[in-house]
Amino acid sequence: MGSKNVMVIDDSSSFRTVVALALKRVGYGVVEASDGQDALRKLATSPVDLLVCDVNMPGMDGLSFVRQLRTQPKHGRTPVVMLTTETSEAKKAEGRAAGANAWITKPFQPSKLVELVTSFFKE
């Protein structure tokens, strides 16, 4: 299957590290970004197969980022997993409308995140 690359977008560097370690442990390449704007800049030069994104971030929040991502032909169908403290159905619906593919709430189990990410790459 080859190595897949995942971008982790969160304003907390310690949280990005936790997610990155869980993904690297099972063989994924990881690119980190601190907010939506940083992610868009890095996507220009870093090929990714899936994105894990927080909702609440300074600069560009996660939902604005997903809306922007979906306008790009290259990433219009790239899977996006929202990983956030937001639990309201209204926020989840807003996420789906923006183009998010899945939603996990913090605190989370790294093994469940890895399982979900891997499910997007099964043929």
How would you describe what is shown here?
- The chain has 5 helices and 5 strands.
- The N and C termini lie close together (10 Å).
- It is 40% helix and 19% strand.
- The chain has a single domain (5-119), classed as Response regulator (Rossmann fold, 3-Layer(aba) Sandwich).
- The protein has a 5-stranded parallel beta sheet with strand order 2-1-3-4-5, sandwiched between helices.
- The radius of gyration is 13 Å and the shape is globular.
- With 123 residues, it is of the alpha/beta class.
How many strand units?
5
Tell me the overall shape.
Answer: globular
- Total DSSP helices: 5
CATH class: Alpha Beta
> How much helix is in the residues?
25-40%
What Rg is obtained from the alpha carbons, in whole angstroms? 13 Å
Estimated structural class: alpha/beta
Assigned CATH superfamily: Response regulator
Which parts are unreliable, with pLDDT below 50 for 5 consecutive residues or more?
none
- Specify the biggest β-sheet: 5 strands, parallel
In N-to-C order, the SSE pattern is EHEHEHEHEH
Annotated CATH architecture? 3-Layer(aba) Sandwich
Portion of residues in beta strands equals 15-25%
**Mean of all residue-level pLDDT scores:** 94
Q: Return the CATH topology.
A: Rossmann fold
Q: Structurally, how many domains make up the residues?
A: 1
Q: Give me the side-by-side strand order of the main sheet.
A: 2-1-3-4-5
Q: Termini separation (Å)?
A: 10 Å
Domain Response regulatory: 5-121
Keywords: Phosphoprotein
Protein name: Two-component system chemotaxis response regulator CheY
GO biological process, one term: phosphorelay signal transduction system
